[in-house]
Amino acid sequence: MTLNVEDYRRFYADEIRFVANLDSPALVEAFARVPREKFIGPGPWQVGSAEVRALAAAGMGRATYVTIDDPRHLYHNVVVVLDAARDLNNGQPSALAHWINGLRLQPGNRVYHVGCGVGYYTAIMAEVLVQAGQWWRRKSIRISLLARGRICRTTGTWQSTRRMGLSLIRENAMRCSLTRV
């Protein structure tokens, strides 16, 4: 039996639930639904653990990464390198999940996400709020990362969009609404 990416995503959500001590079923479901690979750009990707990065930052070794090209392998509790030269990654899933869980998000709440990177965790929050919520995100980032994060929700599937208004760059903000159509 071969597992598909949705199976891996479901297992990942359950794993994040236990590692981050999540008590929000809606948040766990959001991790199972939002496709991480749509936000971080095309593979191959470099992934690594937060523990190895922390040890390297403390001078106890160096940060190393594993190169993967199968999107199913993105569904582990690892960071994904976005820009190695600037040491940018998409964030440790269990850490972000724990912090998001602490927000106690409910449909109808609003979220303003500062430092949203490519938007993966913003989309996770939006999935929790999708019934009636709104979200805003703001970050000064390079155009290449911004282009990766331009995602919209349409007819139940995630689709990358290639439109990117320079006015959004100049305003240093992106305003998007994720709602079910």
Please tell me about this protein's structure.
The chain has helices at 5-19, 25-33, 37-40, 50-57, 93-102, 120-129, 143-149, 166-171; strands spanning 45-48, 66-68, 79-83, 88-89, 110-114, 134-138, 151-154, 157-160. The protein is of the alpha+beta class. The protein has one domain (5-171): Vaccinia Virus protein VP39 (Rossmann fold). The strands form 3 sheets. A 4-stranded antiparallel beta sheet has the order 2-1-3-4. Helix 2 crosses helix 6 (120-129). The longest helix is centred in the N-terminal third of the chain and has 15 residues, at 5-19. The chain is globular. The N and C termini lie far apart (34 Å). The relative contact order is 0.15.
Summarize this structure briefly:
38% of the residues lie in helices and 18% in strands. It is an alpha+beta fold. The chain has one domain: Vaccinia Virus protein VP39 (Rossmann fold, 3-Layer(aba) Sandwich).
SSE diagram, text form:
Elements: H1 5-19, H2 25-33, H3 37-40, E1 45-48, H4 50-57, E2 66-68, E3 79-83, E4 88-89, H5 93-102, E5 110-114, H6 120-129, E6 134-138, H7 143-149, E7 151-154, E8 157-160, H8 166-171
Parallel strand pairs: 5-6
Antiparallel strand pairs: 1-2, 1-3, 3-4, 7-8
Helix pairs in contact: 1-2, 2-6
